């Protein structure tokens, strides 16, 4: 009996302790700070991590209007050695927390947040009454998931859970304080109630929403909150339908009705006719022009609807309807529709080129006309970023259209669109530069060919054919002077481009042991480390399924040709991570495309039966399993490593050439 009494006393003491907040409010002055004046903070760093700091700052987390806001202030040290600062507050500031630190706010050298328990206090108004949000703020500070926002960054680790009884008390106090205005802070309030009521919460939430629906003057905005909560959080279909009925009765063309109608569209249906009908019905009921007269945060709905409808039209070959959408959509939506449908269809030959030309030609002028509509503005922090994104995307869409026109030998039209590219877009893409060369050849415009080649060389975006053309033009006008041509070619590259290549190479030096290997050649012979003795060896890991690997082949061919006569340099294309008859697939593809490579096949791992034995041993060096991947080996060690492909054959050649020459000149 005595032990049982002791146990009950301990439980009582523990419950009392849990009923108290974890945080320390003693750094705030006065003990009950008011919203009518700046709140004073007095901090002693003695015996704390910041004790010997000569500059202490404070980050304040203010719970205002039921949301967290954050500011940082520098503190002053007074004559008694205490650090002080005053934080401005508003009449709606209900709760304040503070974290002290040394260094930069984003990357502090040291912090003091009371060992994750926190320094915090609730505020009162000029009459000494609690401010609406005070109790919700107290809960949300100690349980960040209640109100989210920047309060997560206050802690070094996830705070421990609080007892339901304590949270229930805070919820009851907040409800008594804020009354029927709880819809102003509905989501955090319901988050608090869910933690406080635990299993009893669904019934409580359902009753609360039903009581609210009985009100005659409930707003569309509040109905939207109730609908979202009932459909997503409670997943109560009957309650959701009840809210839908109220919405469609009171606000049939409002924002909530629009969101409900969008939620009920059939975008996930495999039946294209069903998808199209649901999206068309939505747009008939909620025209985008109507929304643009009173825009709100629902622009994402029209972006999704037009994307889904456009793709459904395109996939079902209703290309006229697809093109007609461009009468209504903004640049952002139109760009995505063209990227996903036109570019994809062109790359994978999903639509005949004549048909694809008709629709691409119909929509591109409309897309160009809307490039200044600022539809990307919300996706970026700065206007300059949004503008740059528009330029890049328009260049990409023009690239696809110009490629299509070139294939159809519509050279005059292709040249017209080429002139609409940005300055970088005109010369920064080697593949597009070659297409433009073909266009100029097709037009017989010889005067424009040399300027194109010289600008492409300046941007270091050249293909093998472009080098051949440039060399032929130069040698014809300079009595076949090969040495002078090399000097001329080197002089075309900008200093900025040369510096960028040097910086890239400098960044990719490594020093890693090359694993032992026995690799088969295309001829059925075998290569071992002994064959690479006293050589600088470039290895390109690739696969037939890897499009960037294949796109990099022209650059590797340039490198192979450049070092064809150098007995101290060897270059191998090592096929890896392939399936089936990978040997024949690799050899047939390379030879069929006319590339002159020394081919190797990665060995099969006996443990996994996968063709990746050498590559997987180097993954710790690479950091991932992506290809293409180039390495340069010297004296049994991997000395250089780079991944991916920039899109420029000449840039790839220059990168690897520079690394080779540095290794050749190494003492």
Automatic annotation (TrEMBL):
InterPro entries xref list: AhpC/TSA, Thioredoxin-like_sf, Thioredoxin_domain, Thioredoxin_ResA/DsbE_sf
Domain (Thioredoxin) spans 508-665
* Signal peptide (UniProt feature, chain positions): 1-19
**A GO term, aspect molecular function:** oxidoreductase activity
One matching Pfam family: AhpC-TSA
Q: List keywords of the entry alphabetically.
A: Signal
PANTHER family assigned: THIOL:DISULFIDE INTERCHANGE PROTEIN DSBE, THIOREDOXIN-LIKE PROTEIN HI_1115
The entry's protein name is TlpA family protein disulfide reductase
Q: What is the lineage of its organism?
A: Bacteria, Pseudomonadati, Bacteroidota, Sphingobacteriia, Sphingobacteriales
């Amino acid at each position: 009996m005595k032990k049982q009494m002791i146990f009950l006393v301990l439980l009582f003491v523990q419950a009392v302790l849990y009923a108290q907040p974890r945080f320390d409010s003693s750094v705030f002055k006065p003990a009950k700070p008011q919203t009518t004046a700046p709140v004073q903070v007095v901090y002693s760093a003695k015996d704390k991590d910041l004790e010997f700091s000569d500059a202490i700052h404070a980050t304040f987390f203010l719970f205002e209007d039921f949301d967290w806001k954050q500011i940082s202030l520098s503190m002053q040290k007074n004559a008694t050695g205490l650090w002080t600062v005053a934080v401005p507050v508003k009449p709606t500031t209900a709760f304040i927390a503070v974290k002290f630190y040394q260094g930069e706010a984003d990357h502090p050298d040291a912090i003091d947040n009371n060992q994750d328990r926190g320094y915090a206090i609730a505020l009162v108004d000029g009459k000494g009454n609690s401010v609406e949000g005070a109790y919700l703020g107290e809960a949300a500070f100690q349980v960040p998931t209640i109100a989210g926002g920047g309060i997560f960054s206050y802690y070094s680790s996830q705070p421990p859970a609080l007892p339901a009884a304590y949270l229930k008390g805070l919820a009851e106090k907040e409800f008594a304080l804020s009354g029927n205005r709880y819809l102003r802070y509905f989501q955090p309030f319901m988050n608090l109630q869910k933690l406080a009521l635990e299993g009893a919460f669904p019934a409580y939430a359902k009753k609360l929403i039903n009581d609210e629906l009985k009100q005659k003057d409930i707003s569309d905005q509040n109905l939207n909150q109730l609908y979202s909560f009932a459909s997503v959080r409670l997943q109560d279909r009957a309650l959701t339908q009840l809210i839908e009925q109220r919405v469609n009765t009171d606000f049939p063309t409002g924002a909530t009705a629009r969101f409900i109608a969008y939620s009920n569209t059939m975008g996930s249906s495999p039946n294209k006719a069903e998808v199209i009908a649901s999206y068309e019905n939505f747009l008939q009921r909620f025209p985008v022009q109507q929304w643009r007269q009173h825009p709100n945060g629902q622009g994402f709905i029209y972006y999704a609807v037009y994307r889904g409808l456009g793709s459904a039209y395109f996939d079902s070959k209703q290309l006229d309807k697809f093109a007609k959408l461009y009468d209504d959509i903004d640049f952002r939506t139109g760009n995505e529709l063209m990227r996903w449908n036109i570019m994809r269809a062109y790359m994978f030959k999903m639509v005949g080129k004549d048909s694809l030309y008709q629709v691409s030609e119909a929509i591109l002028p409309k897309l160009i006309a809307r490039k200044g509509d600022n539809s990307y503005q919300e996706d970026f922090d700065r206007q300059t970023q949004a503008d740059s994104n528009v330029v890049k995307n328009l260049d990409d869409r023009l690239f696809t259209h110009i490629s299509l026109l070139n294939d159809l030998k519509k050279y005059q039209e292709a040249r017209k669109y080429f002139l609409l590219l940005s300055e970088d877009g005109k010369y920064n893409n080697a593949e597009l530069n070659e297409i433009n060369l073909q266009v100029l050849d097709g037009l017989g415009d010889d005067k424009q060919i040399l300027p194109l080649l010289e600008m492409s060389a300046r941007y270091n975006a050249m293909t093998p054919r472009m080098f051949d053309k440039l060399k032929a033009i130069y040698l014809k006008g300079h009595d076949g002077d090969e040495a002078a041509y090399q000097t001329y070619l080197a002089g075309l590259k900008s200093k900025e481009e040369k510096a960028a290549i040097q910086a890239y190479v400098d960044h990719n030096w490594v020093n890693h042991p090359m694993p032992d290997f026995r690799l088969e050649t295309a001829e059925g012979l075998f290569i071992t480390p002994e064959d690479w003795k006293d050589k600088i060896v470039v290895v390109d890991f690739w696969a037939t399924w890897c499009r960037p690997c294949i796109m990099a082949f022209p650059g590797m061919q340039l490198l192979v040709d450049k070092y064809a006569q150098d007995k101290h340099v060897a270059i191998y294309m090592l096929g890896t991570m392939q399936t089936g008859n990978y040997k024949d697939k690799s050899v047939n593809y390379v030879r069929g495309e006319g590339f002159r490579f020394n081919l190797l096949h990665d060995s099969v791992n006996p443990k996994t039966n996968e063709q990746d034995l050498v590559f997987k041993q180097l993954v710790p060096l690479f950091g991932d399993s992506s290809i293409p991947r180039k390495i340069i080996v010297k004296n049994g060690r991997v000395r250089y490593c780079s991944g991916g492909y920039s899109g420029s054959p000449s840039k790839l050649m220059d990168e690897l050439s520079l690394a080779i020459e540095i290794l050749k000149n190494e003492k």
